[in-house]
TrEMBL record:
Coiled coil: none
Organism field: Dioscorea zingiberensis
Membrane topology: Single-pass type II membrane protein
InterPro entries in the record: Exostosin, Exostosin_GT47
Record-annotated Exostosin GT47 domain positions: 83-365
Main subcellular location: Golgi
Official protein name in the record: Exostosin GT47 domain-containing protein
Top-rank lineage group of the source organism: Eukaryota
Keywords noted in UniProt: Glycosyltransferase, Golgi apparatus, Signal-anchor, Transferase, Transmembrane
Family: Belongs to the glycosyltransferase 47 family.
MF GO annotations: glycosyltransferase activity
Length: 369
């Protein structure tokens, strides 16, 4: 991702969202096992998503424990020692097996269905795991990986929950409903929790020191009430209740951008459009504002606003539009956030956010640090 940053403009669309109530009990951090699912090629540089997550997690997870659930959280403090994280060595069906199932569902041969993780907007689960398992990761990282679960403060559960959701391709409308899909994400979620509940370190603290990445808004939906004590790494809180997730214990991650980074000269001289948006015009919940924005803006001069679905051609057009516009519109979708915000940032196009309930990644990390 480019190191150049864009400004962000936020436009509220209704009354501010009330602050979610803190969860009833704060997580305690205890020890747990280490994985040997090493990537084939260790990452040469720490990935942005990993480093930002680690910084935020360090500040977030080391607040003093509160003896009363009704009292306000104590001020956060950073201990002098780095917290240690243990990466579970999950059965392969939860990691490489998910990748293999994804490729096989798309008619890939067994030989081709290797450990090549398919790129998509919720790829942080892959980047984070490969960074944690990188044997040459920086010693200056605020988080240390340990192979001894008894020394661990945190336990990372490397289930590819977002990829698991899309293993089965979208079936055509005329498909035979009696034909089994072959892979069940819900069954995989159930099996994961059953496996965790049999582990010593989960039972000792009821999962409060376990870290799950569930970036897709529907990831782990089947078992969310069984893992809600843990630390959730997600995109937003749009489909979760306050008793399931909140900024008290969870971390909002950035999406993986889906268009190419802008490589031209910095400046506005070559940006012919004032404002650009391309996406689905009709959405649910807060995304209903999109239709109103279309009605207001589609006839305006220097504004490009188009309806478009996900496709390779749409991505090409979005790349061209964002790279040639000064501002990029970012309205809410079915949930408060979308990868379009990060597409705009790597395009050096100033995002204009129209979403009441959006939580930006790591927006409170500076205050905590």
């Amino acid at each position: 991702m480019s190191e150049r940053h864009s400004s962000v403009t936020t436009i509220p669309t209704s009354n501010p969202r009330p602050k979610p109530k803190p969860i009833s009990s704060k997580p305690h951090f205890m020890p747990s096992p280490m994985a040997h699912l090493l990537p084939r090629r260790p990452l040469l540089l720490p990935l942005l998503v990993s480093s930002l997550f680690l910084l935020s997690l360090l500040a977030l997870l080391h607040s003093p424990s509160s003896s009363s659930s009704s009292s306000p959280p104590s001020p956060l403090s950073i201990p002098p020692l780095r917290p240690k994280i243990y990466v579970y060595d999950l059965p392969s069906r939860f990691t490489s097996g998910v990748i293999r199932s994804y490729h096989l569902a798309r008619s890939a041969s067994a030989g081709d269905a290797s450990l090549k993780y398919p790129g998509h907007q919720h790829s942080a689960e892959w980047h984070l795991l490969t960074d944690l398992l990188n044997p040459s990761r920086s010693s200056s990282s605020p988080l240390a990986v340990t192979s001894d679960p008894h020394l661990a403060d945190l336990f990372f559960v490397p289930f590819f929950s977002s990829l698991s959701l899309i293993v089965n391709p979208i079936r055509p409308a005329n498909a035979n409903p009696a034909t089994p899909a072959g892979y069940s994400d819900e069954e995989m979620q159930e099996q994961l929790v059953e496996w965790l509940e049999s582990q010593e370190h989960w039972r000792r603290n009821n999962g409060r020191d376990h870290v799950f990445i569930c970036q897709d808004p529907n990831a782990l939906a089947k078992v969310i009430d069984r893992v809600r004590n843990g630390v959730l790494l997600l995109s937003d809180f749009g489909r979760l209740r306050p008793d399931q997730a909140s900024l008290v214990k969870d971390v909002v991650l950035p999406y993986s951008h889906r268009i190419n980074s802008y490589q031209g000269d910095v400046g506005i001289e070559k940006r012919s459009s004032l404002l650009f948006f391309m996406g689905n015009r009709y959405r649910k919940e807060g995304g209903k504002i999109r239709d109103t924005l279309f009605q207001i803006l589609e006839a305006e001069k220097d504004v490009v606003i188009k309806h478009g679905a996900q496709s390779r051609e749409s991505r090409r057009m979005a790349t061209q539009g964002m790279h040639s516009s000064k501002f990029c519109l970012h309205p809410a979708g079915d949930t408060p956030s979308a990868c379009r915000l990060f597409d705009a940032i790597v395009s050096l196009c100033i995002p204009v956010i129209v979403s009441d309930y959006i939580e930006l990644p790591f927006e409170d990390a500076k205050a905590k640090l």
